[in-house]
Each structure stands twice: as C-alpha cells, then as structure tokens.
Specification:
Number of domains: 2
Strand content: 5-15%
Distance between the termini: 34 Å
CATH architecture of the largest domain: Orthogonal Bundle
Number of strands: 2
Radius of gyration: 16 Å
Oligomer: single chain
Number of helices: 9
CATH topology of the largest domain: Arc Repressor Mutant, subunit A
CATH superfamily of the largest domain: Winged helix-like DNA-binding domain superfamily/Winged helix DNA-binding domain
Structural class: mainly alpha
Helix content: 55-70%
Largest sheet: 2 strands, antiparallel
Shape: elongated
CATH class of the largest domain: Mainly Alpha
Order of helices and strands: EEHHHHHHHHH
Strand order of the largest sheet: 1-2
C-alpha cells in the first residue's frame, strides 16, 4: 500500500500517492525550474540530500529525469507553468522581447517534442536530424525565450500553448 502525503501549495493541500511530504515539496520546487542547488538552499538541506530525494521521487512516480518529473507535476496539478524563473510572465512585461525574436517552425517543433518529455536522441530520431542539431536548436530556443534549461523550456511551452 502506498503512502499518501500532502504538501501545502498555494494555500491548499495537494496529495501525492507514495511521496513523503518533503518529496512533494522537492517535486514542487523542481517543477518551478529550480536547480538542485537552489532547491537545497531553499530547503536548507545539502545538494546530496536533494539528489537522494529526486532519486526517490523518480522511482515512486516512474520517471527517469527532471523533465518527465515536471510533466508529472503538471499533470497532477502541482506545477504552475506561469512560475518559470526567467521567462516573461505577463503580456506587456517581457513578451515584446520574445515577439522580437520569434521561434522558427523547426524550433517550435523541437520545443513541442521536448515538452512531451522526449530526450535529445528521440527528438533527433523523430525529426531525422542529428543530436548536435537538436542541441543547437535548444540553445537558440533557451536564448529566445529567456530560460536556462529543459524544465523551464517545458513550462514555457505549456504556458504559451506550444506543447
């Protein structure tokens, strides 16, 4: 029988089957695009402890990486895609910068596949391009949408309807 735990998120309790309360909090922070270092500082724990929590979370929710865990959190209603650090949040505040450097159709395709949780290798196979080309597209995407990693890009794609 799986444990059930709750974490206080935005003023209400959210349940995660099988996750401890601390794991639920780590998942919430991960789904906001925070690095292990930032999660550790926020919770006043070591990075090693964060890594241990993430290993437990991945095993319990049957995923293999941060992107898939974030997708899980989004589907469970835990993640708020509007809370991505570094991405413009409101029309008029930073969206002009995004509009001035729009994503190409290929970049949109790469971002859509990334938002489905695909690895660089699977994106490359799907689009019939090299992994190096995928990495180049991702670098361009990150710069244009003002994010620093896959998780933040995934949340951006979800928020803007590009997924």
């Amino acid at each position: 029988m799986g444990e059930s735990s709750a974490a206080e998120i935005s003023g209400h309790k959210v349940r995660f089957t099988g996750l401890t309360e601390r794991e639920a909090i780590v998942l919430r922070l991960l789904s906001r695009g925070l690095t292990n270092r930032r999660i550790a500082r926020t919770l006043e724990i070591s990075e090693k402890t964060v890594k241990n929590h993430l290993s437990g979370i991945y095993a319990k929710i049957h995923v293999t990486d941060r992107t898939q865990a974030t997708l899980y959190a989004l589907q469970a209603g835990v993640a708020d895609p509007r809370s991505v650090p570094g991405a413009p949040l409101q029309a008029g505040r930073g969206d002009a910068a995004v509009r001035s450097t729009p994503l190409t159709p290929r970049e949109k395709g790469v971002l859509a596949l990334l938002s489905r949780g695909l690895s660089n290798r699977l994106i490359a196979r799907t689009l019939e391009i090299s992994e190096k080309t995928v990495k180049n597209h991702l670098s361009g995407i990150y710069a244009k949408i003002h994010v620093t990693d896959r998780t933040q890009a995934l949340l951006y794609a979800r928020r803007t309807g590009l997924s």
